[in-house]
Write a structure and sequence with these properties.
Rossmann fold, alpha/beta, 3 domains, three-stranded antiparallel sheet, Molybdopterin biosynthesis moea protein, domain 2, single chain, about 425 residues
């Protein structure tokens, strides 16, 4: 369970590796691709004299492999090459989400309008006709590198703003109360496991949706949330709880690029999960619905395997692929601190360390190892009012800083096409 601002921040940053600033390549890192050695040598020499870092390749396939390992800031690409021409190389770059933002400038002796149009349609940003003057090449190269630097600066600003907004919401959950924080962490762990097994694209969205899926509950009193989460009932508290997905989605949708995450949260109580959805928002909503249902069963005192068995025979059906993906899941073990508390200080989620008896020792109220839920706490309080309870009570309290299951997939935010 995460109960501190530092731990909550860490969980968000784990979920959003693509929303943190990351080192970028040398601003002058240029890749040249041409099957003619003389052209490569000429271009290398001219660019290096101007201070650019240059890598050159005689084949498109070699260039693609090198770019995947260390992306350049700009690619100067010949069109007529054996094995794979420049159009195909560019198309493959633009089909790779990690390389799509690299600007490509075509180099070619072909000067027909049709060739230039084809180059731009393939994803190129500029076209230089051979034979070329280096002054022209230098100006075009520096123009594209300047645009690339401006895009990165804009993206970094957006990422920092987005990361700060998400962190604030996650902190709000963890500052609202231990029960809400513990449930959010438990849901996150289950969803991360499911996403790793199912392998959807943009796995970060599913983890972030899990972290924030209960954000709409921050407006509920802590005890009202605990009662509604423990067992549905008819009444104002349950109505407030049922409204939390819509309230949470309204908060999230205001953050740029999180519209899909907001839809996952909005649909978590209403989505139909008869088969694994293809739509990302529906898939995320199904993962949330399954994780929440499992966690509510565990919140009522069931072990995970027993909770999974209950979900399998429950009224809401989930795809077999999702249920099978949880067969090897085990909730992370938490660190606990033993505390001696009075009845009025007992809270949901604490574990009874020693048997709880009435004051005269004649009646066992709750045995060692039981997990305190709203009903158990109310029962203990009622005994304290009528017959008295031996106090202080020994309980285990989950500690902050618990090691959580690490995300299995990250996110690389896509930049605009170069």
């Amino acid at each position: 369970m995460i109960e501190t601002e530092e731990a909550a921040t860490g969980a968000v940053e784990e979920a959003l590796p693509g929303l943190r600033q990351s080192p970028v390549a040398d601003p002058g890192n240029v890749m040249v691709v041409d099957d003619q050695p003389a052209n490569l040598k000429l271009m290398e020499d001219m660019l290096r004299r101007e201070g650019y870092a240059v890598r050159s390749f005689p084949r498109g396939r070699l260039a693609l492999t090198a770019a995947a390992q260390n992306a350049p800031d700009l690619i100067l690409l010949d069109i007529n090459m054996p094995e794979m021409d420049g159009f195909e190389v560019c198309a493959r770059l633009k089909a790779d989400r990690k390389l799509v933002s690299i600007p490509v400038v075509f180099l070619s002796a072909q000067s027909e309008t049709e060739d230039k149009v084809r180059a731009f349609r393939a994803g190129g940003v500029d076209y230089i006709t051979k034979p070329f003057q280096f002054e022209e090449v230098q100006v075009r190269v520096e123009t594209q590198l300047g645009l690339q630097r401006a895009r990165r600066a804009e993206r970094d600003l957006l990422e920092n703003t987005l990361n700060g907004a998400v962190r604030t919401l996650a902190d709000l959950i963890h500052q609202t109360g231990p029960a809400l924080a513990a449930r959010s962490d438990a849901i996150r762990n289950i969803v991360v496991h499911l996403a790793a097994k199912l392998g959807p694209d943009e796995a970060w969205q599913y983890e972030l949706a899990a972290i924030l899926c209960l954000i709409g509950c921050v407006a509920l009193p802590a005890e009202a949330f605990e009662r509604a989460y423990w067992r549905p009932s008819r009444g104002p508290e349950d109505d407030m709880f049922r409204a939390h997905p819509e309230n949470g989605a309204k908060l999230i949708v205001r953050i740029p690029r999180l519209d899909v995450v907001a839809e996952m949260i909005r649909r978590q109580q209403t989505v139909t999960c008869n088969a694994v959805p293809q739509d990302a928002a529906d898939l995320g909503a199904c993962l949330l619905r399954l994780a929440v249902e499992l966690d509510r069963q565990m919140f009522r005192g069931l072990a995970f395997k027993a909770a999974l068995d209950q979900v399998k025979v429950g009224s809401h059906r989930f795809p077999r692929e999702m249920l099978n993906a949880l067969e090897d899941y085990a909730p992370p073990l938490a660190d606990y601190e033993i505390k001696r508390l009075m009845v009025g200080d007992l809270r949901v989620g604490m574990i009874v360390e020693d048997d709880i008896h009435t004051r005269d020792g004649s009646f066992l109220i709750m045995g060692k190892g039981g997990v305190l839920n709203p009903t158990a706490i109310e029962k203990i309080r009622n005994f304290d009012r009528t017959r008295g309870v031996r106090q202080p009570i020994h309980v285990r309290v989950p500690q902050a800083g618990v090691e959580l299951r690490q995300p299995q997939a990250g996110v690389e935010l896509r930049e605009p096409r170069g």
